[in-house]
Structures are given as C-alpha cells and as structure tokens.
Amino acid sequence: MPLLPSLDRALSPRSRRAAGLLAFASLITLTAGCTSAPAHSNPGADDSAAPAVTDNCGVEVALDDPPQRVVTIKSTTTELLLALGLGDRIVGAAFLDGPVPEQWADDAAAIPVISDFAPSQEAVLDLEPDFVFAGWESNLTADAAGERATLASFGVGTYVAPSACKAPGYKPAKLTFEVLFDEIAEAGDVFGAETEAAELIEQQRSLLADIEPSTADLTALWYSSGSDTPYVGAGIGAPQLVMETAGLDNIAAGIEDTWTSLGWESVIEADPDVIVLVDASWNTAAKKIELLKSNPVTAELTAVKRDRFVVVPFAAGEAGVRSVEAVASVVAQLGELGIG
C-alpha cells in the first residue's frame, strides 16, 4: 500500500472543513501511557468537570461524551457495537472479514462499507467521524486510517480492542474469556452502553456454561492459511482459547504467540487428530482441504485420512463477541464427526 501524501494534500476540502470543526471540539486527549495496568477512571476527579479516562494500549483516551459517529475497522469491532445495539452510530465500516451473523444483519445493512481492507485516513475523515474503533493497532498507522495522535489533532478519538494490544504490560499474557468479558465491559464504558454490555456479558456467560467440551483427548491443528508453510493458531490467542475451551489439545500451544508459522515437519510429527480450518472468501476451507489431500505427505495425516475437519469462519476466529459461538460450533462439529 503506498504511503499517504502530506496530510494537507491527503484531505479533501470537505474533510479539512470537518477537521477544523472537530479539532475545536476535540473529544480525545492522547498521551503515551506510563503504567502497565489499565485505568478505567480518573480517581478523585469531579465527574461533572472531567472526562472519563481509559488507558488503551498505552494511549490515554478521554471522553466527555460517548462517541456518536464511529468508524469501525475489522469485523470484531463492528459486531461488538452491533451486539451492544449501537449500529446506528456506525457511519462506516471497513476490513470486514466475512458476512455479519444473521442476528445483526438487518442492523448492519445500512452501514456503508468504505474499504475491504484498512481504510485510508482520507476515507475515514470524509465520513466526519468523532471516533475510530479498530480491531488491530496496525489499523491506526500512517499508511492506514491514520496515527492516533494525528487523528486526535483533528478531533477524532481512537480505541483499539484491548485483546489486540501489543505493548508490554498491555498485551494479554494469554487470552481468556474473562479478558474478553472485561473488554466488552470497557467498550460499554467507552460508548455509554454499560447496561447493554452487562447484559451481553451475562448472555455470553450463560451460553458458555451450557457448552460441554469434548472429553475424547484429541489433539488439533488450527490451520489459518499458507501452503509452503502453514500459518496456525498458537498458544495465547483466540485460536487457543477456542480449542482449549472446546476440549482440544492444540499442537502449537507451547508457542507463546497468537498466530505463528509452523513447518509442515512439525505438523506431521504431531499428527493431529483434528484440523480446525479457517474459512475465508480469499482462502476457503475447501481449498485447504484440497491442498492437504493433494500433497502425498499431508495426505497421510490422521485428520486428513479420516476427514476430521472442523470449520470456523474467519470473523469468528478472532477475539470478539463470536468467540463463545465458535467454541459451541467446534464442539457440535466434533459430535457430528462422531469423535466428541
């Protein structure tokens, strides 16, 4: 992706006018974080005079009022706002990883999709947002939607899904459902939907409690992409959380990362009982099955010979409001295979 031209040339006249107004009524103050623990409030402050403060990936987010014009980047952020009943605040969405689930499809139908990938800063500012909610920190860079400090100078607040934070002290040591539920609660604080967030968490807890994980002592590979070298789910992110909760033993659990490259030699040596396939329009589960079966070496894997494939949509494979649903789906598919 080419670098953006200078900021002045990058903005349309409409965007420059909007940016000037937004800068005058800025909703966010950004400073480098100094502590390693998130702070959800400003202790001792006069609530009537001071904005609520959230320490987000080492950036301090201060809001006088909940955001009203939000650009979402990634399915996880879009679907979280939809699940909180805030779809009418989304003025544009980008980088969606697949179709929105049926329960939110009607609310999502009116949301403009501004890019199939990370949007440019100009595309974001043209929508005159007061906030950008990003699924990855890399969505908020100079060659994507814009750096956080730059957007703040135009009065546009930013917030990154905390489970995607990379800085020491902010990156979760290992993703758990408690981390995800805390993330939902914090989003409720940021967007002024505390009650809705609490209700959503209770719904998720109830669904999670009803899942009976596999007791078959099965090993599994989370195969996301790649042919020469597979890109797989490692030991601390959403794939590990989904597999572990479903009762599967991830063959890459010992790798301290969310996703990683893993040589076929290691996969063949581990010979997993099950292969979890990520399904995306640009890299379907069917294509991965074809690859596994056409290669004489991988064709001898136990999971391949016995057609033990479990499929997870790409958008459900990242940390978000569909993670519980992903666990339930994996368990159900294991049952359909007769190995649950």
How would you describe the overall organization of this protein?
With 340 residues, the chain is of the alpha/beta class. 34% of the residues lie in helices and 17% in strands. The chain is built from 13 helices and 13 strands. The chain has helices spanning 7-10, 13-24, 75-83, 102-108, 121-125, 148-153, 177-190, 194-209, 238-246, 264-270, 285-294, 302-305, 323-336; strands at residues 52-56, 59-63, 70-73, 90-94, 113-115, 131-134, 157-160, 218-225, 231-233, 248-250, 259-261, 274-279, 309-313. Strands 8, 9, 10, 11, 12 and 13 form a six-stranded mixed beta sheet that branches. Strands 5-4-3-6-7 form a five-stranded parallel beta sheet. Strands 1-2 form a two-stranded antiparallel sheet. Strand 1 and strand 2 (59-63) form a beta hairpin. Helix 7 (177-190) packs antiparallel against helix 8 (194-209) and helix 9 packs across helix 13 (323-336). The longest helix has 16 residues, at 194-209. The chain is globular, with a radius of gyration of 21 Å. The N and C termini lie far apart (44 Å).
